[in-house]
Structures are given as structure tokens and as C-alpha cells.
Design goal:
The complex is a heterodimer of chains A (243) and B (199). Chain A is an alpha+beta fold. Chain A has helices spanning 80-84, 87-103, 112-127, 132-146, 190-201, 204-208, 212-230, and strands at 3-16, 20-27, 31-37, 55-62, 68-78, 167-169, 174-176. Chain A is elongated. Chain B is built from 8 helices and 6 strands, in the order αααββαβαβαβαβα. In chain B, strand 1 and strand 2 form a beta hairpin. The chains are: A alpha+beta (243), B alpha/beta (199).
Amino acid sequence: MGLYRDEGVVLRTQKLGEADRIITLLTRSHGRVRAVGKGVRRTRSKFGARLEPFTHVDLQIYEGRSLDVVQQAETVSSYGDRVVGDYGRYTSGTAMLETAERLTAEEKEPANQQFLLLVGGLRTLAGGEHPPGLVLDAFLLRSLAVAGYAASFYDCARCTRPGPHPFFHIAAGGSMCGSCRPSGSATPARETLDLLAALLSGDWLTADASDLRHRREGSGLVAAYLQWHLERGLRSLPMVERT
Amino acid sequence: MYEGVVQDLIDELGRLPGVGPKSAQRIAFHLLAADPGDVHRLAQVLTVVKEKVRFCKTCGNVAEDEECRICRDPRRDRSVICVVEESKDVVAIEKTREFRGRYHVLGGAISPIEGIGPDDLRVRELMTRLADGEVTELILATDPNLEGEATATYLARLVKPMDLRVTRLASGLPVGGDLEYADEVTLGRAFEGRRLLDV
């Protein structure tokens, strides 16, 4: 037991006792950490808004027996104010935080890539340059890829035959050629698969120019793909406001 | 482990929020040693509170009748509604003696990560109250945390077509605190909401 210093993003908070909160963080070197923020609910708390979700903080944490304790917190970037001012951004952002929490199953296991992805995702979301729904879908696809579940939107996910292919199967990992396709494969529009490939690779020009109906179809595929790999759906995903 | 009913009492007390097994044991032995009249009174209050207390049909605050004391009071300003998350917030605002309007208790805040959306709160009831046109100002006094802010944003957008004056409680530096300890968000809000000192 001892002190450690790390930077992290606050994913969620839960009330504890009279004035404390359990803060769930995704940290750069210690992965997912649950730590107590003592007295954080009091209006005169030294932490103020530093331990609110969507805040990127530099922390000093004391390792406890069951839960760690946050001793000091300094803000690196606060995305909360810019996210919460727009309801669509807020609902997309909470789905991003929940995904980051769910995809880092083990506590204290380094998750540097997930951490960097989340910080980048929140910065883009708060910047407001792209529609929140697209930022969310890009984040979901990339976080699944970092976790080892990258979907294929061009080559056949089974035989790697170069595409484009008309079929898509969630459980098989994405695009399917005519000879590999399992029964029950979906046949999404070619533009939808192009959009998802653009979101995965970070081609925002293509993504921003996409049609609303292809975005809708793409979101459905992403949600189903995420649920398949997480085994149960996200609570926040059905509440995402998509325009 | 204690015998029968004593252990039952410890178990029941231990189910209360913030009461651990040691505290439950201490409270149980305090009750055993206390005057029987005091214990009887406590038992009676617990029963009565569960039987009598309900939620006000208008604002959702805790009440002993169909409507709470504040909604029944004819001296309260009917043109202003202050929206809060919990009944506890009504008590906190009442203590200030600054507000003479009426309240609307939402029963929580929007928190998608906990699975709580607008449909789980008393938002529809609020819209019904606003529909008759009597209310001219809506004060959004949800907690100054992320969920509270998101709820305020949602409500402000929802009532926008109603042409109401929608205000949000100011947030900034706490009275009696030191400026150097204020976090960036709080200090930033205090700057945004600074007021003219006309002396």
C-alpha cells in the first residue's frame, strides 16, 4: 500500500455515505481505478468540480485495502461544461464513458490505448466540429478495435477476400463474401459500410458528408456489434439522442 | 450473533443507509437500554410516517395530505416554479427564506449511465403544470453537478417554445472559502456570473 500518481478521466461517480463519492476513473498507467473522493459532495470541498465525469485530471491516490482514496486532483482538461451544454453531446458522451468502463474489465490493468482514445474522443465531442452521434460511433468502433474486436467493413471477415461485399454478419466480425456468409446475414447499404469504415479509420470528410439514413443504419450495426462483444447492452446507449 | 429478536433488530438497523454492522449493534443496545416510552414513541413515529406520508399530487414533495403545505399556501407566488431534484432540496431552499414561489420535485436527475432518462422523472407532470399559462418563470435548481446541469439543459430546451423566463441558479465561489482552492470550473463560472458592484 502507498501513494501513486497518475492521470485519468472520470467515468462515473456514485454517492457514498454522507458526503463522499466513489469515483471510477480510467487512468493512463493503472487502467480502471475506483477511488473514494472524501467530502466531494460538500459545496466547500477542495475537489470542487475536478472529480466530475468528463474531467481529465492529474491525481495523487492513496492505495487502500478495498478502495483507493483520492488525495489530490488537478484539472488537465475539463470537457464537462462543453458536453453538458448540448443534450445530444451529453448522451453520446455518457455512452462513451460507459463503453470505456465496460471494455476495461480488470481494475489496475494498464489501458493506455483506451485512455488515449477516450481523451481524444471527448476532445472531439466537446469541440462540436462533428455530429455527436458520429463521434460516438467512431469511438465505439475504435475502442472495440483496441480491445481486439476490430470489425471488417471491406474485406471478408472470414476468408479476407477483398471487397466490397454485400453481406454483413455481426457474430462473424463484419463484411462477408457470398461464399462465406452465414445464414441471417444483413445486407446494409454500401454507403453505410463506407461510413463505418470511414469512422474506424478517422476519415471525417467522408463521415461528415454521409446521409442521415446511412448514419441511422450504421448506428444500429455499431450498437448490435458492441452488444455482441460486451454480452449485454449499455444502459446509456438507448438514451443517446441522434439527430 | 445474538439471540432471536435482538439479532433481528441489529439486522434491520444494518439495512439502513450509512449504518454498518457495528453501528447497528450500538444503536440496538442503546434502544435496549433506553426508556420504554422513548422506544415506543420511535416505533409509533416509524409506523405513522409510513402510513401517512405520501407525495404531493402537484409538486411531488413529501406531504401528509394530497397536497403539500407549500402548494396549499395561498400566499405563495403561483407564477414561479422552482425545479429541484429531491424533497431535501426544497427544505434547503426554504431555509434561505428567499424564494416565495412554488416547487416541482423531479425525483432525481437524468443519468443515462445509471439508466435514468427523462421518462423516469416527473417531467411530464411539470409540462402539465406549465400548460395552463399561469407560470411565467421557471427556476432550474437542479444540483450543480453534471447530471443536474444536463437535466437543466434538457428542461430548458423542452420549455423553450412556451415563452417562459427560464433561469438557472448561479454557481461560483462558496461564501467563506479561499479563492486559491477553487477549481477551474467553479472559478470560471464565478467569472462568467460576476456582478456589478454599485456602491
